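Researcher: I'd like a structural prediction for the single chain below. Treat it as a standalone chain; there are no partners to consider.
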Amino acid sequence: MLEQEFRDIVEQYSEQLYWHIRGMVNSHDDTDDILQDVFVKAWKALPSFRGDSAVSTWLWRIATNEALGFMRRQKLRAALRLQSLDSEAERVIDSDPWFNGDEAQRRIAKAVAGLPPKQRAVFCMRWIEELPYEEISSITGTSVGALKASYHLAAEKVKVAVQEDD
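Model: Treating it as a single chain, here is the predicted structure.
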C-alpha cells in the first residue's frame, strides 16, 4: 500500500517539483539530482507523515529546503574557487542545452539567478508557480507579510537587472 501511494505521489508531483526546483537552481542536471533527493527524503519520511499539511505543501517544503541547501553548497564552492556565484549561474544558463527560452526569458532567468537564495525561492513560487502567499508561508514557515516584502524586493531587483541588460 505504501509503495503504491508513493508511486502515485511521484507521478502526480514530479513535473511540478521539477519546475519548482529548476526555477531556483537553473541547471537541468542539478534539478534532476535534487528532485531525486527530494523523493528519497519523502520516501523515508512517508510512514511518519501525519497529514498536518497537504502532501503538496510537504513536498514543496522538502524541495525548497533541498534546493536552498544545494545553493548554499554552490555558494561555498564558488567562494572557495574565488568565483562569483552569479557569474557561475549565468554560465550555467548560457550553456544549458535544455534552456529553450528566447533572449528576454534568458535575461529574466539570469536576473532571477542573481537573487539571494531565499528571495529566489519566494520569487519563483509566487511569480513562476503562482502559488498564493498563504501556501508559500506554509512551505517556508515565513509570515505572509515578510513574504510579500521579500517578493517585492526580488521583483524590483529582477526589473532593474533586466533593464540594465537593455
